[in-house]
Design a protein that fits this description.
The chain is 48% helix and 11% strand. By secondary structure, it is α/β, with parallel strands linked by helices.
């Protein structure tokens, strides 16, 4: 088994893993979403006037729709769907009127789900905390010398760079590119909060990246959360299976040790 995979399991199940992980993946206080005052004013006017069509048009442009309804996605994505389906417009508008205005505002300003807050935490940790004593640098600086370095770029910029330099073919952005001791490391970071559903898809993404053949770089999967629980679950079984136990899978807490061991 890959040393740092084994060490990740050990740390997660024998030490204050969550306490230490909080430095990498802190949770923001659940601040409610901001709605532009002009937009909110229009919404209120349409709501009070019972202007079904304009209310729904404006509400569909929000990040968060105030009710759960299986028809909403279609209305968002198909041009002229609102005009062509007046009964659906009236039905959904009626439900929104029933909740009253204060509840409507409460629902459209709900905080983002905790797992959605995690997407940028890893890169924030690298850039702001600089846990390896190295300040991440732009691509121009990264390529100007051969010193140990961490790339500060968007996931798409990292993907494009990896595609050009390492023949990276996976159609997925990257969370991490570094060079240590003249060895390049690329990878994806995931915080997995639970078993099943969306979280299984997140793990699958990371493993697909891990399985991508590249030239001249080490590919790693930086995984944290419930995946390290030594219980009878599919995630843990997957990463400790014969297929993956010797691949470069590790917790973010051991990333520094791994990089300096290269």
């Amino acid at each position: 088994m890959f040393k740092y995979l084994q060490d990740s399991i050990h740390i997660a199940n024998n030490y204050n893993y969550l306490d230490r992980l909080y430095s990498v993946y802190p949770l923001s206080t659940n601040i409610r979403r901001n709605i532009d005052p002009d937009k909110l004013s229009r919404l209120k006017q349409y709501y009070m006037d019972r202007d079904n069509l304009n209310l729904l048009k404006e509400t569909l442009s929000l990040d968060l729709f105030p009710i759960k309804d299986s028809y909403v996605a279609y209305l968002k994505k198909v041009p002229n769907a609102l005009e062509l389906n007046p009964q659906t417009v009236n039905r959904i508008s009626g439900i929104m009127y029933e909740m009253e205005w204060d509840k409507f505002v409460h629902n459209i300003t709900e905080p983002k789900e905790t797992n959605r807050q995690m997407s940028n935490r890893f890169s924030d940790w690298l850039i702001n905390k600089q846990p390896f004593g190295i300040k991440p640098v732009t691509l121009d600086v990264f390529m100007s010398n051969t010193e140990n370095a961490i790339l500060d770029a968007s996931d798409i910029q990292m993907k494009n760079f990896a595609k050009e330099k390492f023949n990276y073919t996976h159609n997925k952005g990257l969370d991490f590119i570094a060079r240590f001791n003249n060895k390049y490391v690329i990878g994806e970071a995931k915080f997995l909060t639970d078993f099943g559903g969306h979280q299984n898809a997140q793990l699958s993404d990371a493993l697909q990246t891990l399985n991508t053949n590249v030239n001249g770089a080490i590919v790693i999967a930086i995984l944290d959360g419930i995946i390290w629980a030594t219980t009878n679950n599919k995630m843990y079984k997957t990463i400790t299976s014969d297929e993956y136990k010797d691949k470069y899978i590790l917790s973010a807490l051991l990333l520094r040790d791994f990089l300096f061991s290269l």
